[in-house]
Amino acid sequence: MVSAFGKTTLGLTYSLVFGEALLSPAIPSVAARAGGIFFPLAKALCLACGSDPDKGTQKKMGAYVMKTCFQTTTVSSAMWGPGG
């Protein structure tokens, strides 16, 4: 998905959002899904694109991608969690 949609920052975040939506019913634990799969993937993608907080370039792309991943995780958790 990332290779197909990742030509722009918006396409990259859409691919992460759709991946989260596809996996959220199968992996109900938000900690396993977000902390084990999506946040490390998003961080690696940001670092590969040159957005590194150690170099002061975190707002180049990383802040947007990480905030979008966090919000997506919250929404998918509410959709598929107990009582959702």
Automatic annotation (TrEMBL):
It is a multi-pass membrane protein. One of its GO terms (cellular component) is chloroplast inner membrane. Keywords: Membrane, Plastid, Plastid inner membrane, Transmembrane, Transmembrane helix. It is found in: Plastid, Chloroplast inner membrane. Coiled coil: none annotated. GO terms for molecular function: malate transmembrane transporter activity. Belongs to the SLC13A/DASS transporter (TC 2.A.47) family. DIT1 subfamily. PANTHER family: DICARBOXYLATE TRANSPORTER 2.1, CHLOROPLASTIC. This is Uncharacterized protein.
